[in-house]
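Support request, please re-run this one:
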Amino acid sequence: MNSNLTNSTQDTTPETPPNPAIHGGDYAFFFDVDGTLAEICPEPDAVSIPVNVRNNLQTLSVASNGALALISGRPIEQLDQLATPFVFPAAGVHGAELRDSAGNLHRVSLPDEVAVPLQQMLEKGMAELPGTLLEAKGMAFALHYRQATDFQQQVLALAEAAVAKFPQLMLQRGKCVAEIKPRGNDKGAAITEFMQQAPFAGRTPVFVGDDLTDEKGFQAVNALHGITVKVGEGSSHARYRLGKVTDVYSWIEQMLEQAMLQRHLNNKNVEEKESSL
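Re-run finished. Output below.
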């Protein structure tokens, strides 16, 4: 197991989570994207998942009989672009969009009487803050200030004013972003919903994330006695920790390598038994 994966309550500890047995049908895997499977970039459109990581995700998905999903603040359409040519079950916009393993898509929508004036309000407010970026996601909006951190308080005040005006919405803070989304949707609720469906049901969930937006997911998975892994620094409800995105890549590779070794040992045992008959 990767020695970089440690219990989040201490900086150094020999305690590590159990190695997920991906061929035993025992685990279900959930991955955040930005900051977990992909390095964070100044511009959201510049983010990418390396080809070899996409291939490993597909291998992990096949090995776990499809019990792997992407859980992100991005719309599912963007998740598919990042994962191409593969298509995974996914929860987008923090669970406001959910596509199950059968390909059925469920989406929360905002009524026009909310969506139109909300977008106008946000466009006007963000236009007054040079360097900030408004990302419209259909039923949600992300107010980015990564390249204009001096405007953090103004962006947060704008987001809070919008949520106060439209009580059916809620504010979700992240790394240099304030997201406005329908109330009642979060990554924890999305993971909980997946865990009630095949092929996820009956397995132990594993969730890897890096941001404040992932904390609801960590709490939900902890409640299900699963494995929660925080990527990077900062306090978290996650029980374990990986230092950076490339450590996530190495962890996935190790799971696959150990699965191949276990397969080899199982095949060898079968051959030895057959030869002894």
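The helical segments are 51-63, 76-83, 112-127, 152-165, 187-194, 215-223, 245-275. The longest strand covers residues 169-174.
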